[in-house]
Amino acid sequence: MKTHNYHLDHLQYLETEAIHVMREVAGEFERPCLLFSGGKDSICLLRLAEKAFRPSDIPMPLLNVDTGHHFPELNEFRDRRAAQIAAKLIVRTVEDAIAKGIATPTPGEISRNRLQIPTLLAAIEEFQFDCCVGGARRDEEKSRAKERFFSFRDGFGQWDPKNQRPEIWNLYNTRLNPGENMRVFPLSNWTEMDVWEYIRKEHLEVPSIYFSHQRQCVRRRGQWLPVNDLVPPKPGEEVRDLVVRVRTIGDIISTGCVESPADSVEDIIAEIAAARVTERGSRADDKSSEAAMEDRKKDGYF
After folding, report:
1. Pair (134, 253) in one structural domain
2. pTM, rounded to two decimals
């Protein structure tokens, strides 16, 4: 009798693992949503959801918290991609949250990262979501590395790194009391390189700002920041026309650009392989300490 041995390569294993987690979410939760920004990680997440549930509709809406400081290219891609797969896209803005008194800016504070927290928690309350599926990876930074696949949040949306549930033999404790919710991260075991290898393998479209393009930048805090209405050059700062791209996309005020000629996925993969700086080293909002990032997560950050 002839037997067949099936061996999954690295990407196939990660894909299978993530699809299993996606299906666990659909089977265990009544009102899940998928956090979709249009960034490279959420693009992979969306493809995995398609593979997990097609030909049926994806059984959860897409949710995006828009700070009002997004790159225009990112929002255009987000809206177009959601329309392509006929997914319901829910967008909640920090601007509206401020107007309704949900979020309160601190005088002089430019970044809206902190204001994403009450905006997200209000959206969870509005739609009674019991689970939010996100694209966070453990290799991004130290507080992310403390996450499990299923990250329990209490009735205030808060995360306690010392109170994570065990995940033995791929068995997940999804029990929730009223008002509690779960954050789930199917890409937990992926790296930046894995994400780009998967984008290449699946021929996935990504926003144009991931590839080299010409942009005016200023040097600030050791990195190139894009010049725009929110980041005007300060007196004495030199504005340079550079060929740059972004590795990870946050607010336009904090996303650093890297000088790069990479204009294809293959070029990006080669560049990452040779990189000596971490992916999120180009994010000004991640220059803060690990403790500060962890505090944001404890308050309900993604």
Report:
1. no
2. 0.87
Structure tokens at 112: 């809206």
Residues 58 and 144 in one domain: yes
Q: Domain check: are 124 and 242 in the same one?
A: no
- The alpha carbon of residue 256 and the mean position of all alpha carbons in its chain are separated, in whole angstroms, by 16
Structural domain boundaries, residue 257:
204-286
Q: How many helical (H) and strand (E) elements, i.e. helices and strands, does the chain have?
A: 8, 10
Domain count along the chain: 2
Q: Of 156, 125, 120, 153, whose CA–CA distance to 35 is shortest?
A: 120
Which token pair is 292? 């500060």
3 state SS of 153: strand
Same domain, 124 and 153: yes
Q: How would you write the pLDDT of the chain (302 residues) with one tens digit per residue?
A: 555 556 889 999 999 999 999 999 999 999 999 999 999 999 999 999 999 999 999 999 999 999 988 889 999 999 999 999 999 999 999 999 999 999 888 887 777 788 898 999 999 999 999 999 999 898 877 666 677 888 878 766 676 777 777 777 777 777 888 888 889 999 999 999 999 999 999 999 999 999 999 999 999 888 899 998 887 888 888 899 999 999 988 888 888 899 999 999 999 999 999 877 766 555 555 445 455 556 555 555 66
CATH of residue 184: 3.40.50.620
Report the b/e string of 164-197 with b at 16+ CB within 10 A.
Answer: ebeeeeeebebebeeeebbbbbbbbebbbebbbb
For helices 265-274 and 192-202, angle between their N-to-C axes, nearest 10 degrees: 160
Q: Are residues 35 and 99 in the same domain?
A: yes
Q: Residue 59: enclosing H or E segment and its boundaries?
A: none
**Residues paired with residue 63 on neighbouring β-strands, in sequence order:** 35, 90
